[in-house]
Amino acid sequence: QTVVTQEPSFSVSPGGTVTLTCGLSSGSVSTSSYPSWYQQTPGQTPRTLIYNTNTRSSGVPNRFSGSILGNKAALTISGAQGDDESDYYCVLYMGSGNWVFGGGTKLTVL
Amino acid sequence: QVHLVESGGGLVKPGGSLRLSCAASGFTFSAYHMSWIRQAPGKGLEWVSYISNSGSVIYYIDSVKGRFTISRDDTTNSLFLQMNSLRDEDTAVYYCARPRGNYWHFDLWGRGSLLTVSA
Q1: How close is the nearest chain A Cα to the Cα of B20, in Å?
Q2: Quick check: B40 contacting A, CB < 8 Å?
Q3: Each residue of A64-90: pLDDT tens digit?
């Protein structure tokens, strides 16, 4: 069974930079998994931030960026703001119409 | 403007059935693949099922295979999820979402419909 791993929680200071990661329990994440990232505040619908590893969705500020770092996908938030305090989910495409989400990272800005 | 609106959620006893619907608007529904994604209370997101734009290709997460059936009606721009033999662990908000076949991400989400399975 494929498990996608994310840090359960992270904190960043306002104006700071934070990198959240998305890995596989066994193996490496590559661009061929088409990693994408979603932001969700409590009670709200997920918002698409990044797709295809590093493409920002329409309207997403350029302080959000995606990449592959080592064997993981990564979401970097530069110049963190208070309203970035959310849950962040990555998802990897496994092929054949199957996706696996990570468990999510709760980001605190303080 | 593009929209997905889910309906049909509610309280069901274990072993019961329920059918979720998702009404699409603002885009050519028949051209797009569709999916259901769920989120248990206080938990993360979980992909549940996929149906291709033609309706001929369907996939499910293992935990719902044999119990859930995804379908679509392009004449009414609707997506459905028939859920049978419901279990406590199926309790979740169910989101209708549009996956894009070019980069396999979800670019459009509904607001979700809550299913509660409880005796």
Answers
A1: 17
A2: no
A3: 999 999 999 999 999 999 999 999 999
